[in-house]
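Task: encode each sequence below as structure tokens.

Item 1
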Amino acid sequence: MRSKENIHQLIKKYLFEKKEEKKSLSSNIRPWNMQPWDMMKSSVQDELHRINPHTNHYHSKLRTVFLLSMKDVDLLNSVSFVLIRDGSFSLMNFFRLHPVPGTIKTTFIINRDLAYFVPKEWKKQVAIYSTHLNFHSNEVCNNPDEIILTGVMDKFQASERYLEEILNEIKAKYGKKLEHMSIKCLSCYNPNYKDHDGYFFKYVAKLVKILGTKIEYINWKDIEDRNFKRTVFLDLNESKVLYSGSFIVHGLLSRGALPFRYDGNSKTNQDTPDKVTIVSESVYHKYRITDSFPEDYHSIRNEIESKIAVFNKLKFTKESNTAKKTDVHFNSIHSNLKSFASDLGLFVAQNKTL
């Protein structure tokens, strides 16, 4: 097992080597971790496709990975560290299948909001990152030319309660200014997804009811060549259930867009400089990587482990556990696991300290 204290040296060494190799930003080489599409299990294909384009590969100075896409976890040992893009759902499934690092020696860099989903047995092999802006304009935030809403039309990603709350927050902040703003919606919906409770229609109805009918529905190709220096965006990603690292969000940040909610400054720990690494992802944003877990990690993690024990007892029989790595089993449990991950995300939000 590699020591967590070495993550900063590992990153600096990697960035130096990458710079020396002079890799092209326009490289079309498949990400080192991604299996050819036809080699993935059908259930994994469906899951990644359903939240596409958030799952698309993007250029990063760090190695990024969806653990969900990895056919063979032994591949992880070919690199010293990876930045995890999974949401709590697939992260929980990974740790369920790998409750201890075992032969996996790679250090994981995980979004701060998902730190509580990391088992204690993995804690020494995990670093935490948060996203920060290099520039933040209150003037643009208060008077943007446009607002872009993005996300996935999925009840586990954005509950009806959350959706209504955040859209009303936008309406309250901008009021009549909304009449003069361009409002774009880049939320993804897969027509093959079995929407049993009509969430898609509820989603659209709330958008229209709260923000009006002038919303323009777009896809990334409509705007990918633009800059967003007077744009505010909102990723409708309540608890990071389906993803924590989004191609769309990375693209918007890299071109100057500002998040509607930004509390980056409140999430900085009092770490010493040798325990923090700053990685600039673009002119506009950067990652702050630290060894330190949130101070309330252990108390909240204890509660989560109790809830997981009850969930496992109710949902996993001896028969299902023997088949837990099969495609059929993944399909049979993923809805329950998503719902559970969503509930845990709300529990964390209500109990964590900033």
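Item 2
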Amino acid sequence: MKNYSFIKSSRIETRYKINPLFILILIANLITVLSQLPDLRGEMIKQIVLFGVWCIVFFISLIRIPVRLNTNILYIIALVMCFDIYCGILSIAKGTRYLHSSLIYPVNLSLFILVIGYFMAFYLDKNKIKLICAIYISGILFVMLNIYLKYFKGVVLNFNEGYVYTSKNSIGVMVLLAAIILAIYIKGNNGLFKIVKVILITLMLLFISIIQNRASLVAALAAVVFYVLFYIPDIRKRLILFLVLVTASIASLSNTKIVKYLDSIMSISRYGMNLDKLSTGRMQLNNRAIEIFFQHPFVGIGSAYTENFQLSSLAQYGVMGALPILVLSLIGLWEFLIKSKVKKDDFVKMLGIIFVTALVISTFEELAPFGPGTRFYMMWLLTGYYYGAKCNSCENS
């Protein structure tokens, strides 16, 4: 069996004591995370600078690194090209609604970030990837603190009055991804480090709950379940963990304060069991998307809005256009949960669970797992790195 472990040397580092591309990636990574600061959200200059830095990383990588694209990356590029060509042809034939549809930009942006991650594997080793992840987590913690001090400090929370922080979805998802990376991939033998790690993960989950990012809370629960099912081979350990989870759930639901807190977050007491109101109108939007799909099953209608990625894809592009991006959205589940030969590797486990959370969130949001904005950029960056490292290992073996 071939060894798919991550590379330990760098093609560029042999010529430079300080890797300039690594420094650029750290800067791009930090700027991307800090773009979620409330005072910077929506600023056009911020978006231009952010995209510019990633473009510089891309073009320098393209020029300096003699990389050949392997089958996996070519397959992903082919899927996106099929999607783009399809939208282009239908825009000519049926009008520009297809080119103005919501998924064109985030799908191509995700591919752009994935290719950068692929290049990274040829000049960054595993330790530097961990440092990039650590910078990501640190930036998220800083943004969390900033939001807390700006919006929640000294405020008596009353979830029935609405959202305190309205831009909750983007930061909520990024906080959850940071928690998964910290829980699975960032390891340390020091006892104090483990205690701090547990505290930070707990704070992250509490932050997601106080901003009422319900999709991320559901995704977090799914992450735990899938981790137990797919990454714990010992049936006895799996059973014990399952019993612990059931016991903890029963104990939590037996506590009136916890039940009241969960009830306020999920807004059940506010809306009862009215699913449309509980989902802030998503049921009505989804029903409309289903109607559109049945009316136009093959090619869709172009631009259409609903808060569910799968239904949005089918309504906008029909079966023919939705198929490439639906396959692309599931590629991580196939690669990291089912196909991978290195399931014991923490990097693979981390990506598998991240893709599970992305899939869950995509049932609540239109653009997940591709967007909007920077929400899932780290997932695609690390996925690209995985494919690049796998290719590099094959070349060196």
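Check on item 2: The chain is about 70% helix and 0% strand. Residues 20-396 form one domain.
End of task.
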